[in-house]
Every structure is written in structure tokens, then in C-alpha cells.
């Protein structure tokens, strides 16, 4: 299927070539546990803080240093972004017709494994 000229979505988190979120933040599992315990002792929500820490390590759109996707990987990434854009356009229109606001999903591209 060719989608030449179609819009590509910007709701993409490109994690290809990165390690897990804890590795990206430099805290490691032990550091995240310590932050969670301290937050709990101070009356905060440790789950919320840990989720924020994980997101800090994986929100950028730049590829990991030294990682270079193949031409085929890049073509597939563009294809996925175009499909997502079409989905966003269709559902935005349907929601708008019904007086609602559509919240677009985030596409996560990764190689190997990723924290979810």
C-alpha cells in the first residue's frame, strides 16, 4: 500500500536504539525505588512520580546516539506515522460531529524491548 503525500503524525515517541526509561534517566531501578519511598514518606503518590521519571527518559523524538535505522525501518516508521495520522483525522471528525474532543494516541517506535 502506497501512502505517498499523506500527512504523517507528530504524536510519535521514537525510542529506537534506546535502553529502558530508567537507564535513560540515569537513576536505575534502585534510584527509582528510593525516589518512590521518599515520595511516599512525604505524602505524595509514588506511582505518579515513578511514571513521570519513566516518561522523562522516553519522551524525546531523537534517536539514541549511534543508532541508525535501516532504510526499511525508516520506511516502515513513516508508513506507521501516516496510518496514525489517518486514524487521527477520521476519529477527530467523528468526535467533533458528536460534540466531543478526540485525544490522539501516542505511537511508540522501539527496537529490542521497551518499558511499558
Record the SSE blueprint.
Elements lengths: L11 E3 L6 H5 L2 H14 L4 H11 L14 H27 L9 E3 L7
Parallel strand pairs: 1-2
Helix pairs in contact: 2-3
Question: Can you describe what's shown?
Answer:
Helices cover 49% and strands 5% of the residues. Helix 2 (28-41) packs antiparallel against helix 3 (46-56). It has helices at residues 21-25, 28-41, 46-56, 71-97, and strands at 12-14, 107-109. It is mainly α. The chain has a two-stranded parallel ribbon. It has one domain (12-109).
Entry summary:
The chain contains four helices and two strands. By secondary structure, it is mostly helical. The chain has one domain.
Strand content: 5-15%
Instruction: Give the rounded overall mean pLDDT.
Output: 77
In which range does the helix fraction lie?
A: 40-55%
Our count of domains comes out at: 1
Q: Provide a count of the helices.
A: 4
How many angstroms separate the termini? 30 Å
User: Which structural class do you get from the secondary structure elements?
Assistant: mainly alpha
What shape does the CA trace take?
Answer: flat
Tell me the quaternary state. single chain
Low-pLDDT residue intervals, each spanning 5 or more residues: 21-25
Order of helices and strands: EHHHHE
- Rg: 18 Å
Strand numbers in spatial order across the main sheet: 1-2
Number of strands: 2
Largest sheet: 2 strands, parallel
Amino acid at each position: 500500500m502506497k501512502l505517498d503525500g499523506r500527512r504523517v503524525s507528530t504524536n510519535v515517541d521514537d525510542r529506537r536504539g534506546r535502553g529502558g526509561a530508567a537507564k535513560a534517566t540515569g537513576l536505575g531501578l534502585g534510584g527509582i525505588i528510593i525516589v518512590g519511598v521518599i515520595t511516599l514518606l512525604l505524602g505524595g503518590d509514588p506511582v505518579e512520580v515513578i511514571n513521570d521519571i519513566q516518561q522523562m527518559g522516553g519522551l524525546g523524538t531523537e534517536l539514541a546516539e549511534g543508532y541508525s535505522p535501516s532504510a526499511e525501518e525508516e520506511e516502515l516508521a513513516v508508513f506507521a506515522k501516516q496510518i496514525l495520522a489517518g486514524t487521527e483525522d477520521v476519529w477527530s471528525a467523528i468526535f467533533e460531529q458528536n460534540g466531543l474532543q478526540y485525544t490522539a494516541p501516542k505511537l511508540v517506535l522501539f527496537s529490542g524491548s521497551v518499558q511499558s
